[in-house]
Amino acid sequence: MENTVYHINKGINKSIEFKGLKAQYIWYFGAGIVVLMILFSIMYIIGFPSYISLGIIGIGGTVMVVKVYKMSHKYGEFGMMKELAKRQLPKAIKTQSRSVFKMRKL
């Protein structure tokens, strides 16, 4: 009988992480790159000078990378979703009668 070596995956139930970006921020980063590529191609088709186009794309790419990494470190895996959900909660609920708080018998 032959001995078999099984490798155990230690990353079960962990979120995806790539170069410090966690979970959905990888998708935001990819979408930003696609938007920058489309913007560059539009500027190229219109006839913008290449150096100006590269400068605009370079500055936009730098800003995008800094923002995505800052959001990833600030909010973490689920923090941004929690923050957006918290914004949808009302600060106060107004009512004109006390009947809402009275115990009702079914």
Short description:
It comes from Flavobacterium frigoris (strain PS1). Pfam families: DUF4133. The protein has 106 residues and is mainly alpha-helical.
Structure description:
Keywords: Membrane, Transmembrane, Transmembrane helix. This is DUF4133 domain-containing protein. The chain crosses the membrane at residues 25-45, 51-69. This protein has a domain at 17-88. The chain is 55% helix and 4% strand. It is built from 3 helices and 2 strands. It has helices spanning 25-46, 50-75, 79-88, and strands spanning 17-18, 21-22. Helix 1 (25-46) runs antiparallel to helix 2. The chain is flat, with a radius of gyration of 25 Å. The chain starts with 16 loop residues before the first strand and ends in an 18-residue tail after the last helix. The model has no long low-confidence stretch (mean pLDDT 83).
Q: Secondary-structure map with pairings?
A:
Layout: E1 17-18, E2 21-22, H1 25-46, H2 50-75, H3 79-88
Antiparallel strand pairs: 1-2
Keywords: Membrane, Transmembrane, Transmembrane helix
Protein name: DUF4133 domain-containing protein
Transmembrane segments: 25-45, 51-69
